[in-house]
Specification:
The complex is a heterodimer of chains A (about 290) and B (about 280).
Chain A: H1 2-9, H2 21-37, H3 42-56, H4 67-83, E1 98-103, H5 110-124, E2 129-133, H6 141-151, H7 165-178, E3 183-187, H8 196-209, E4 213-219, H9 226-237, E5 241-245, H10 254-263, E6 267-271, E7 279-281, H11 284-292
Parallel strand pairs in A: 1-3, 1-4, 2-3, 4-5, 5-6
Antiparallel strand pairs in A: 6-7
Chain B: H1 2-20, H2 26-43, H3 48-63, E1 80-85, H4 92-105, E2 110-115, H5 122-133, E3 136-138, H6 146-159, E4 164-169, H7 177-193, E5 200-206, H8 212-224, E6 228-232, H9 242-249, E7 254-258, E8 266-268, H10 271-278
Parallel strand pairs in B: 1-4, 1-5, 2-3, 2-4, 5-6, 6-7
Antiparallel strand pairs in B: 7-8
Helix pairs in contact in B: 1-2, 2-3, 3-10, 4-5, 6-7
Classes of the chains: A alpha/beta (about 290), B alpha/beta (about 280).
Bound molecules: guanosine-5'-triphosphate (GTP) (2 copies) and magnesium ion (MG) (2 copies).
Chain lengths: ~290, ~280
């Protein structure tokens, strides 16, 4: 663990004196290595380590904990601050129905997450979700969301693969109101951030239904490319937040830090399994500990 | 003289950034750069192009031995049973669809086994791919035992004298012991109905994943003894650099790469092309 590595770096430093520039340099190397292993982006690691280095130099060595533990605490606190210190809710502003758009790369977990969001809203008792399958490209994508909607007893728009996603979204808003629902969760096809026509399609959906919230769904195993992906989606759509999925695995999830550092949008929820109930609000302190390993 | 050293440092950082942001990983990056520097020092070369070329050459020599080809026209046995395994959402089902179409176009008789009986609409998804490829799909009810689908599919393949059985499995995180046990059981059942099956156990890896791909390879290999790898989503901006570390640690052929969502977006793994795309 990072704590063990840092303890080794500082083992000559006992409960007296200050943490000096020399022993900090090796500590920073260990922190950098640890964060890169955790998939935090190269550039984000660079600026993060610089910040931590500044805070670490000249710190009084306490007698109650090891210098290694002190540094870890500085790193941990800095991570928590960067990741966002409060759980942010779905943005449901203005007059209902509130459209919520989920976007992201192929296979990141959007369709499953829509069902989880709907289930969470239903459990909350304050909102009535309406599900919209607007992925007409992936084989059986409509079937997938329709089946999930049935599982959670939520109404679902009867999309057809011959429909166009923009038209589906528009018609679904009207249907949702007729069905007495106030939150319209729109599933979209996975797409690469460099696929110009597909990114333009998302902008058209946004213009057509004026979503109250737009969430980027990101796989926790995502590597260095997380930054480019998040930047592109954010630039095109002005995201409301991020949902991190598959946190039930052993990926350290450094993509979370990279994304937050670069686009500064809140990570709102996390997927922690394949079942509908496997969904939680984001906890920055838990994420910080996980990234540190 | 000091100026020369400065260029070195800047160049090294530049190279380090290219390699690390390609998901090659910190340790492997250091090894590549260190080896390149040693090589150049011996030859007393010190220009940026040579350094880059040395790294490229190292990567190609690491990956070239891992280029593999599935036996298609020279099947040692039929039906040739191929399992597709991997974590959630990496592209297993889509890859099977692409391969099925490709094999059918080469006049092979293919049967698909819809052994993901868990995820919503997994069977309809594979069924649609079966339709696209013009091949039959063996499927059971949702929630049924995936091993039963494996058994049924291999038996059908034997009766119909099929060349290939492509087995789709549910996405599973390698950290889930019960799911890994289920996968092991599916392998045992395949061997029971046809000794020696499955003849290929392929791990499908997503090029957008970072260092976790190494863990996936380790755990799946330990669990079922992989025979090969497939790397998908190389049409994305991700470079799939983790495959270098995987190639270094495991003597596993990389058979295919996915370069898109269409039926034609499946290619053989080519070491040179892969390294070229990274730079
Ligand atoms: N273990 C785990 N699996 C998840 C989680 N979220 C989604 N999945 C799985 O990830 C896979 C992909 O999920 P989908 O919902 O189909 O992903 P998607 O983003 O809609 O995919 P595309 O529509 O093809 O872009 C499925 O096997 C899901 O069950 C999670 O939090 N944990
Ligand atoms: N861009 C791109 N997308 C791909 C590629 N291969 C698969 N996909 C997409 O990735 C998403 C997930 O593909 P699936 O075939 O459902 O993945 P899976 O591994 O079977 O997923 P689960 O069964 O849910 O674990 C789909 O949207 C596919 O179209 C590829 O090579 N490139
Ligand atoms: Mg989907
Ligand atoms: Mg699948």
């Amino acid at each position: 663990t990072l704590t063990e590595r840092l303890n080794t770096v500082f083992k000559k430093l006992k409960g007296q004196g200050k943490i000096t520039e020399e022993n900090v340099r090796e500590a920073m190397r260990q922190i950098r290595l640890s964060l890169l292993e955790a998939d935090v982006h190269y550039k984000v690691v660079k600026s993060f380590v610089a910040t931590v280095q500044e805070k670490a130099i000249g710190v009084e060595v306490l007698s109650s904990i090891t210098p290694g533990q002190q540094i870890v605490k500085i790193v941990h606190d800095e991570l928590v601050e960067l990741l966002g210190t409060r759980h942010t809710q779905l943005r449901l502003t203005g007059v209902p129905p509130y459209p919520v758009l989920l976007v992201g790369l192929q296979g990141s977990g959007k369709t499953t997450t829509i069902a989880k969001l709907a289930h969470m809203l239903k459990q909350g008792g304050k909102h009535r979700p309406y599900l919209v399958p607007a992925d007409v490209q992936r084989p059986a994508a409509i079937d997938q969301l329709t089946a999930l909607a049935k599982q959670i007893h939520a109404p679902c728009y009867p999309s057809k693969t011959s429909d166009n996603p923009v038209r589906i979204a528009e018609k679904a808003i009207q249907e949702a109101t007729r069905a007495g629902c106030d939150v319209v969760l729109i599933d979209t096809a996975g797409r690469l951030q460099v696929d110009e026509p597909l990114m333009a399609e998302l902008q058209k959906i946004k213009e057509a239904v004026n979503p109250s919230d737009i969430l980027l769904v990101v796989d926790a195993m995502t590597g260095q490319e997380a930054v480019k992906v998040a930047e592109a989606f954010n630039e095109r759509l002005d995201l409301g937040g991020v949902i991190l999925t598959k946190l039930d695995g052993d990926a350290r999830g450094g993509a979370a830090l990279s994304i937050k550092a670069v686009i500064d949008r809140p990570i709102k929820f996390v997927g922690i399994g394949e079942k509908i109930e496997d969904f939680e609000p984001f906890h920055p302190d838990r994420m910080a500990s996980r990234i540190l390993g | 003289f000091a100026g020369k050293k400065e260029i070195d440092e800047e160049l090294l950082e530049e190279l380090e950034e290219i390699l690390i942001t390609s998901d090659i990983g910190f340790e492997t990056t250091q090894e590549l750069i260190e080896t390149a520097r040693k090589q150049l020092r011996r030859k007393d070369i010190n220009n940026p192009e040579s350094l880059k070329q040395s790294i490229k050459n190292q990567m190609v020599s690491l990956l070239k031995p891992r280029e593999g080809r599935l036996p298609i026209d020279d099947l040692p046995i039929a039906p040739y049973v191929i399992f597709f395994a991997g974590v959630n959402g990496v592209g297993k089902t889509t890859t099977i669809g692409k391969l099925a179409k490709n094999l059918k176009a080469r006049d092979k008789k293919v049967i698909l086994a819809a052994a993901d009986t868990f995820r919503a609409a997994a069977t309809p998804q594979l069924a649609l791919w079966g339709e696209k490829a013009g091949v039959d799909v063996i499927a059971h009810q949702d929630g049924s035992d995936p091993s039963a689908v494996v058994y049924d599919a291999i038996q059908s393949a034997q009766h119909r004298l099929a060349d290939f059985v492509l087995v789709d499995t549910a996405g599973r995180l390698h950290t889930k012991k019960n799911l890994m046990e289920e996968l092991k059981k599916m392998c045992r059942v395949a061997d029971k109905v046809m000794p020696g099956a499955p003849h290929e156990k392929l791990l499908v890896l997503d090029a957008t994943n970072g260092q976790n791909a190494l863990m996936q390879a380790k755990q799946f290999h330990e669990a079922i003894g992989l025979t090969g790898l497939i790397l998908t989503k190389l049409d994305s901006t991700a470079k799939g650099g983790v495959i270098l570390q995987i190639a270094h640690e495991f003597d596993l052929p990389i058979y295919l790469i996915g370069v898109g969502e269409g039926a034609e977006d499946l290619q053989n793994f080519d070491a040179e092309a892969f390294v070229q795309a990274m730079f």
